[in-house]
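Hi,

Apologies if this is the wrong queue. I'm a grad student, and the batch job for Phosphoseryl-tRNA kinase from Anolis carolinensis produced an output file that my downstream script rejects. I'm not sure whether the problem is my script or the file. Here is the sequence I used:
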Amino acid sequence: MTQELQNGRFPQLGLCLLCGLPAAGKTTTAQVLSQSVRKHKGWQCVLLTYDDLIPMEAFIQMEGPEEQQSLMGSWRLYRQELLLCLEHFLQALITGCHYSPQNITETTWERFVCCLKEQGLISVRREDSASCQYLIDFTSPSPIYFVLDDNFYYRSMRYEVYQLARQYTLGFCQLFLDCQVEVCLERNSQRKQPLPEETIYAMAQKIECPNPEKYTWEHHSLILKSAGSALEDNLQMLDLLSAALENPVKPLEENTELKEIDRAICATSALHQTDQAIRRIVSQTMKNAKDNNVALCELRSLAEELNRLKLKFLEGLRHKSNEENQCCLQNNTFNINVTSAFSQEADDIVKKYLNKK
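Support response: The file is valid. Your script probably expects a header line. Output copied below for reference.
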């Protein structure tokens, strides 16, 4: 442990979220950003790439609704554990105390520790890796930026990290890569382990771009059209990180900010519940069609029509942005009416296929 940390003079700390669709260029941007930060600012930059820290199977979309629900729960658990790992390490940086992580699986902790070790931030004795007995391997009091590279397609996902920044008075900013779906699909197809196209399409329907005008906590945000290779983009990114570090998140923000994000989170949760309900309807409709001996080629066409209908319904709900509609989204009766309307239209579609027999 360095003398500065032992005396309680820990360096400035910042959290930067790198958001966007899969294959939007986040990894390239992260590498460019890390090099620029070290070269032009002399800061330490730690990359936390979720694709590397979360097992591949957690990103693969499953067929049935039960499998999807199980997979979603597993994926959320990994994300929560990674955030806990980061919080534990931030506490170590700030307090200078060793500790043992709680509510974190050994596999997740080992992945996180290995990531920090590879970047030269810590050293770990083999026998102590599971108990979090490590040494912090830097001596400079210069700032440290943790860059979290993930999709973060829901605003509520990003707000969880913002809350962490607020809890410890850290700098917080967002880099959002705005890349066309077609470009992401092309890049994804060239990967060694490409994601299913359906996963990227579904994420493109749900992704929420930063909106600083509506959400004050997203003030330090930058939307990029390229993968961070242009000089102008590099300068903008460095300016953003500097501004966020100079203006860390205060422990207590105005109630208006809390109310606006609470509304957004509630609406997102309601949308998710409606999405799950519609998925169950689609699954049951497909099962009924199969039980009624609808031909395989017709089942494929039926699945495509139902998926288009589902996307139309969910997209319509996502555009309910005023306060009255937000309240509607949070109303259970409203959600029941939406799923009932979807069920009716789905029945009308499947009748066409049953009449073809």
